[in-house]
Structure prediction request, 94 residues.
Amino acid sequence: MARIKRNIGDLVSGRIGNVVFYTRNGVNYVRAAPDRKKDSWSPQQLLHRQRFSKASYLWQQLKKSSVGPIWNLATEHANGYAWFMKANMPAYFD
Prediction:
């Protein structure tokens, strides 16, 4: 992953070929795009995606209430969704 020192983020965003340009916390980055095939998921990966989907659905329900802004204020290094997922994903594993 490369860090861009000039403000190319105003010029380019998204994917160009096999390169992805993105901005996180006001810093612009460039990285190689992942090379995956849709049918290459293992059974464990499929299970993890299903659990992740359930945790994400729970966040969608909670962010509509007063709980969402509380999670957004809980951390300064990530957004509320990321912090919620990190804290709650272990509950979906046996």
About this structure: The mean pLDDT is 79. The longest strand covers residues 19-24. The helical segments are 43-62, 67-73, 80-88.
